[in-house]
Specification:
This protein has helices at residues 5-31, 35-40, 58-72, 75-87, 92-101, 103-106, 108-127, 145-160, 167-171, 173-187, 195-207, 213-225, 230-243, 246-262. The protein contains 14 helices and no strands. Helix 3 packs antiparallel against helix 4, helix 4 (75-87) crosses helix 7 and helix 8 (145-160) crosses helix 10 (173-187).
Length: 268
């Protein structure tokens, strides 16, 4: 008989995160009652695709400290970064998507704590009369079951540049299933945050986590694969240095240098 306990546990954790998300979406919908917010409802999320550029936008730069500080659990510095992100033009949805994605890299406790911090900040800003753009929901329903895993497998292959396989996934096939169904499926299928932003968030998260250097280098490569330029990634390193800490920026710088040295993608 197949042991389904891990899958059930993951389902329960996703449900727990969903409760926080529902509360956050309710808060965003309440703010949308005013005409100014209603006009932004359709639709001010960072787009699904971004043009090739040599510089990061102000919104993309703001994602980096939010993702890194949330991953590190540095709540004292996270709230000011969340506020700076909103003031830089990130919508509630943009930031919420980053903090939901955090669970896959830093765990549900850090993700839930960061989402709660965002909710509290939004409530304070609303009381002060500040209307934040709610942003977008995904433009299509997210698939379920086998269709979700198939979509996740396709997304994973596109990001990595080849099908992902190897002894690790033969040894622990559940890991491959969770990666494809939950991360590259349920999260990356949500098109209300573009893949450039999702990869920048992932790079920042992994830069803040000691012992994740191999995964960080992999996501530097994925960032190039989805169209971020070497110059943009170097700028990301500089933003981490200025707004997070030197340790995170040094991890990111080392990973980027190794990735570019091994890359067959022309530097832009």
């Amino acid at each position: 008989m197949r042991n389904t306990t891990p899958a059930k546990t993951m389902q329960q954790l996703v449900c727990a995160a969903g409760l926080v998300l529902m509360a956050g979406e309710s808060s965003a919908q309440n703010m949308a009652a005013s005409p100014a917010a209603a006009s932004t409802q359709a639709c001010t999320a960072l787009g699904k695709t971004q043009p090739t550029s040599q510089v990061l936008s102000a919104q993309q730069q703001a994602i980096l400290p939010i993702a890194a500080l949330a991953a590190a659990g540095d709540m004292a510095r996270l709230t000011p970064s969340l506020q700076a992100g909103l003031e830089a033009g990130l919508s509630v949805s943009d930031i919420r998507e980053v903090l939901v994605q955090l669970y896959a890299y830093a765990g549900f406790p850090r993700s839930l704590n960061a989402l709660n911090a965002l909710m509290q900040l939004l409530q304070q800003r609303e009381k002060s009369g500040i209307v934040d753009a709610p942003g977008c929901l995904p433009s299509k329903p997210i698939a379920q079951g086998d269709a979700l895993r198939a979509a996740g497998r396709a997304n994973q292959t596109q990001l990595v540049g080849a099908p992902v396989q190897g002894p690790l996934f033969d040894f622990a096939p559940a890991v491959g299933e969770y990666l494809q169904s939950h991360l590259f499926g349920a999260i990356f299928e949500r098109d209300n945050l573009d893949w450039h932003s999702r990869e920048l968030a992932t790079v920042a998260m992994l830069s803040a986590l000691p012992g994740a250097e191999s995964q960080l280098q992999s996501h530097m490569r994925m960032s190039l694969n989805v169209g971020l330029s070497a110059a943009q990634l170097q700028q990301a390193v500089q933003v981490l240095d200025a707004r997070v800490d030197k340790t995170s920026s040094e991890r990111a710088s080392t990973a980027l240098a190794k990735t570019l040295a091994a890359s067959t993608i022309p530097a832009r």
